[in-house]
Amino acid sequence: MKKHILNYSWLLILIVSFTFCSQDTGSKRSIIQPINPNGDSELALLMRSMYEDLDSIKKQLERGDSTLLSLNHEKILSAHATEPHKAASPEYKAFAAGYLNLIEALDKAQQTDQILIYESLVESCINCHQSLCPGPIVKINKLKEY
């Protein structure tokens, strides 16, 4: 009986040793690249969330549902930007105020008017990005595709 226990003990030790010795030591780690080469600022992350919210609204409109915002879009006035001088400019503030007016209008609009307001929202994003940060325009244009 003691011989069986001893044999099983050795077998268990071999299995445990083999398992630990064969594990990857982490030497082949993959390098994670940031989405934005300038880093991911609070405003950049917020705008990605805004995109997702608008995409959700687009799907709601396609189904004929009432729109439901899931994000506080007003944070575009206070979120830290990758290039703070751009977000502090009068031009950015004017675009942001216009966008927020459209968000409010969408939230209060009758269902029949929501598609037109949604399209104006997307155009306001494109107009702002054409002036201040053109990189995301290709992605924003996807919000127009029905």
Taken in chain order, the helices and strands follow as HHHHHH
Coarse shape:
globular
Helix content: 55-70%
Distance between the termini: 74 Å
The count of helical stretches stands at 6
**Parts with pLDDT < 50 across at least 5 consecutive residues:** 6-33
Mean pLDDT: 82
Kindly provide the radius of gyration, computed on alpha-carbon positions and rounded to a whole number of angstroms: 26 Å
* Estimated share of beta-strand residues: under 5%
Structural class: mainly alpha
Number of strands: 0
Main beta-sheet annotation? none
Overall tally of structural domains: 1
Give a structural overview.
With 146 residues, the protein is mainly α. It has one domain. Helices cover 64% and strands 0% of the residues. The chain contains six helices and no strands. The chain is globular and about 40 Å long. The chain starts with a helix and ends in a 5-residue tail after the last helix. Mean pLDDT is 82; it is low at 6-33.
Please specify the SSE layout and strand pairing.
Elements: H1 2-22, H2 42-63, H3 84-87, H4 90-108, H5 111-132, H6 137-141
Helix pairs in contact: 2-5, 4-5
